[in-house]
Specification:
Blueprint (H helix, E strand, L loop, with lengths): L1 H16 L16 H22 L5 E5 L4 H12 L3 E6 L8 E3 L19 E4 L12 H24 L6 E7 L6 E6 L9 H11 L2 H5 L3 E7 L1 E3 L4 H11 L12 E2 L1 E3 H13 L5 E5 L5 E2 H12 L9 H17 L2 E3 L2 H5 L9 H9 L1
Parallel strand pairs: 1-2, 1-4, 2-3, 4-5, 5-7, 6-13, 7-11, 8-10
Antiparallel strand pairs: 9-12
Helix pairs in contact: 1-7, 2-8, 3-8, 4-5, 9-12
């Protein structure tokens, strides 16, 4: 009965605990406290200094889609603090010179190619959340099209622009690898199985026009982005603080995480690294099991982490979405970032959680 009570309580918050809610387009729902903001600024200064030491000082003009999301909102601020200019591409009519309108649903006239003429780097983060509701046939189609249509539109506009950007950095996901709990995977590994793998494959293929036009194209395969300001970690805090946190299913599934600070650093690193192209896993070098993550979070919060959520409950409530997002996993390695000398700010899970929760 104790396990049943814990499971029921956990299920009530599972929709908010979902690791997939850390996707780049998930909304940033709370502003960090002043002390936290100061830590973020200090970390950003260090990251900018490291990248400038490697590539030199250079101010770029970025176009960012999905700028209101968890990653996008922080990225705009991060780039601005580094002396870069940012133009946000938004669906609504532009309200100031730092915004330009586009319609990713309109593949024919949704974006004027010349709106990119003065842009150096495009960072494309927009896409519908994969975790907001059960995966019906219609919902899965919307998830796919929100990624492929917007990416194809941006790639075609880049290809047709009279002065195209020098780089196209497109959000992607480690869902490309499918469930891979038996052995680690990296950018050399092939595509996996399942809906998410199919979506990511089509998502990356949609950037073909930019690649054919000779524009350096990078697919940023994000892992679970950790930030106390939004996404998965923020939503896990309440159940863990209430003593209801613990492993999901058997807890053996891979949990490939990355701090938000390192996501921002990886984006700028990819923008400045003129020979970097193709798939890049944006994950920390220390992937863990879901059980190990639950234990680390409980330790960071000084709370227990042994209230399990049985796999059968996940499947009953969330169906395929629960299976793919919570019960499946992969141990993903950042081979390309490590090979090219990217400096992780938070290489260990304990350090990342201490920074976010301190």
């Amino acid at each position: 009965m104790v396990h049943q009570s814990h499971s029921a309580s956990a299920c009530a918050t599972l929709a908010r605990m979902n690791p997939a809610s850390a996707d780049p387009s998930a909304p940033d729902t709370s502003a960090p406290p002043t002390a936290r903001g100061q830590r973020d600024e200090a970390t950003a200064r260090t990251t900018h200094a490291q990248i400038e030491a490697r590539f030199g000082v250079k101010s770029l003009r970025f176009a960012v889609t999905g700028a209101s999301g968890l990653v996008g909102a922080r990225l705009v601020s991060f780039l601005g603090h580094g002396g870069h200019e940012v133009v946000s591409f938004v669906r609504h009519p532009a309200r100031n010179p730092s915004e330009r309108q586009w319609n990713p649903s309109d593949l024919q006239q949704g974006l004027d190619p010349e709106d990119l003429r003065d842009i150096d780097v495009v960072v494309h983060l927009a896409g519908e959340s994969i975790a907001s509701s059960r995966w019906t046939k219609e919902r899965k189609q919307r998830i796919l099209e929100s990624r492929t249509h917007g990416t194809a539109l941006m790639a075609r506009a880049i290809a047709r622009c009279s002065r195209p950007p020098i780089a196209f950095l497109c959000a992607s996901a480690i869902g490309f690898y499918g469930p891979r709990d038996s052995e680690p995977v990296d950018e050399m590994s092939g595509v996996g199985e399942g809906f998410l793998a199919e979506v990511v494959l089509a998502w990356e293929d949609a950037a073909q026009a930019a690649r054919v036009a000779g524009v350096r194209t990078v697919h940023l395969r994000f892992g679970v982005v950790l930030s106390a300001s939004g996404g998965a970690l923020k939503e896990m805090l309440l159940p863990f603080r209430c003593g209801l946190g613990g492993p999901i299913g058997n807890g053996k599934q891979g949990f490939s995480w990355v701090s938000l600070d390192d996501v921002l650093g990886a984006v700028l690193f990819a923008a400045r690294h003129e020979s970097l192209a193709g798939a890049v896993n944006v994950v920390a070098p220390t992937a863990c099991s879901q059980r190990e993550f639950a234990r680390a979070l409980g330790h960071a919060l000084h709370r227990p982490s042994f209230a399990p959520l049985p796999a059968v409950i996940v499947r009953i409530i969330f169906g395929e979405m629960g299976q793919r997002l919570l019960l499946d996993g992969a141990f993903v390695r950042p081979r390309v970032l490590q090979r090219d000398g990217f400096c992780f700010t938070h290489a260990s899970l304990a350090a990342a959680l201490a920074h976010e929760l301190g």
